[in-house]
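lol ok so funny story. i was supposed to be doing the assay writeup but got distracted and ended up predicting the structure for this chain instead. priorities right. anyway since i did it might as well share w the group, maybe its usefull for someone
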Amino acid sequence: MLTKRIIPCLDIKNGRTVKGINFVDLRDAGDPVELADIYSKAGADELVFLDISATEERRKTLANLVLRVAEKVNIPFTVGGGISSIEDVDILLQNGADKVSVNSSAVKNPQLINDLAAKFGSQCITVAIDAKQIDGEWKVHLVGGKVPTELNLFEWAKEVEERGAGEILFTSMDHDGTKDGFANEALAELSTTLNIPIIASGGAGNTQHFVDTFKKGKADAALAASIFHFKEIEIKDVKQELEKNNIPVRI
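and the output, tada:
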């Protein structure tokens, strides 16, 4: 059985790690390279770096940051933010990233997913989907959650899979930063209807939330930010709780 992955997420703005609630009210959480090193040594299975201002400010993710992280850590890491071309991905992978994450650019140009998967392989391509419930329906949002679309979460996720994405990083904007638990019903629907891994994001507040997202949400991996950045929970504590609940993890 495949082990479940615990993934610290580092949201990057102006070269610093930041964290907010429901995608707003950001506060500084430290140097991303230092945090990456700490998490790598603390038992994280992977890392995700999202340059949350890259798409909004029309900047490219800093390849230099990727290079510095690659020199420090020995676990896989994914980089996203402002990626919109084969050239963008090529630079990031050459500098040491294992995977890239595309979000707004994939919605605006779905063919990008096909092109990236064909060029680099599906295993390198993560599609991030930010969604929130509007009138009872999960709607996809763009540009760091600022721009709503008419896209349905589950229909878009299915299309993403068909176009060649290797995994989906689903963030519930309703749960982001609330520490009230993951969106397990939506996660379970994604996990049972798709054949690619689903990463749960948004809402982690305690070790039980991780147990729930793997058991109830059927997620393949769980991502969290503030609870790790501000040392509210240690990765080893999460993994010990998962092991106690017979959920396979890498210790």
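The mean pLDDT is 91. The radius of gyration is 16 Å.
back to the writeup now i swear
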